[in-house]
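Note to self: keep these together.
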Amino acid sequence: MERTYINEAQKAIGGTVKVQGFIENLRNSKYMAFIVLKDITGKLQITVEKADHPELVDTIDQLTPDSVITVTGKVMENDYVKMGGVEMIPESIEIESIANALPIVRKEIAATKKKKAVERSSIDQRIDYRWIDLRTDENQLMFKAQSCFVNAMRKFLLDQNFIEIHTPKLIAAASESGSEVFKVDYFDRNAYLAQSPQFYKQMAMAAGFERIFETGPVFRAEKSYTNKHSTEFSGFDLEFSYITSYKDVMKMEEELLTAGLKAVKEAVSDAVSRGVRTNGRTVFISGTSVGGMDLSEVFWSAHRQNLEEGNAELLKMHSPGAVTSAMVKFLVNQDIIDEPSLVSTVSTACSAAGNAIMLGARMIRHGMADCAIVGGVDSLCRFTLNGFNSLRILDPEICRPFREDRAGLNLGEGAGYLVLTAESDRSYCKVSGWGNANEAYHQTASTPEGIGPGLAMKAALELAGLEPGEIGFVNTHGTGTQVNDLAESNAMLRVFGGCVPPFSSVKPFIGHTLGASEGIEAALVCKALETNDFGFIRQVKWGRPIDETGLVPYDGIGLLHANHAMSSAFGFSGNCVSLIFSRV
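Structure:
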């Protein structure tokens, strides 16, 4: 008899089939035995009444968890069985291999009245026995999702007349400038591991292939001072001809990713129906610049004085991701939220919270989440204070955005988050548009013309389906520095023409909170839209406007009615984001 996969066996009610797999769970009592058998397609309960099958008792007594067996038997319906209401009554059980006691604990075992709790093995131990750890549903689901994602994107591109190519990974010269390469001996000469298929993609374009893609390994010999490396990863590259602008590329990439993620969503939904937990459809995305660097500084202050001093536990909070994880753990432990299906951290300097809001809104728009908790947090620390001071852009007085005599920014700290939902009858407003751009002009500055900020503003307007004249208020990044305020003013003049709407900056009131800024300021804008009161978002003190632009911020005097408000944040390296909020 040929083997039947478990997902097909479950449909063969009343039939006799042969299944094979690992023993996931085993309960062997005096009169009964229950075996949960698992293969790559699912799980099936094998139920043995020992009085009816005495010939199987000796075999069952030899079995251990993770042993591999072959079972032939009749598939029966049983409403009391949790795994699809189906069980198998075996006719024969053959042992393929017996597993010794497992060297790791793959899942935490809760305490009972008779037994103590058993902790899950450490990640290092589980990596040492990776092939055993990978047998869990959660780990296998990652690989299934990856396979589904790649295949869905491959199908999408093939349907769009793309050709899949497979390019050499041993090449005679570096395929990209500016990146380190791995050099290897190739008989009597040097060869290099490919950094990307760029050279071959360009050759394909010149050959008239028009549309090509490849999925394969990428190698980059880039040194890293963290435990995260990009030396080897799988890349999904595509190239196509006959485009009119970068928007054609963005449209193709968005449709490609949507096709892939939609397929994964359907696959994961199927996995959930078969008992694999994915913890709901709430996502938590947080932006930050310094993470827990302030705590690291507390440690080093003590440690530098005495190498035996300093609480090294504080270093665990150093990375931005550690801060996000700690916040989520607190919220879950306090029963404020359920365990999110996705926890992610954005660190794009001062635009971090804005990008977090944008990503959460996009996930809801594309049906990937029902709820998104998004925003940012940043704490004051010596690193940022000294860093901005070295740039000579700290103002010892209250900052003066958009004034000719502006002399720099004031640093602040804080946190601000929004809860975005697909539907709500108690919302303050709605996120109707967003745009992100990176002009890559300078490590810390935008172009004087404000090219990046302007692109982000335009993209947000286009997505919201609004004309510039429909924006009733603009909450600016408005840091009070010479470079930012001039660039942002020029961007507004270009986007809004000669009719720039009322605008202002809250930085004189709360300081520049870096990665948290747009989280805090977006919350203020949402409240202003709900109450139709923008009086608290006004210029703290006015003086002479910037000579080059002559723009005068809103002073809080007079009634201001706005159905739509724009809020922007611009980070180092030209990472710009603009959001549009609309009344409901």
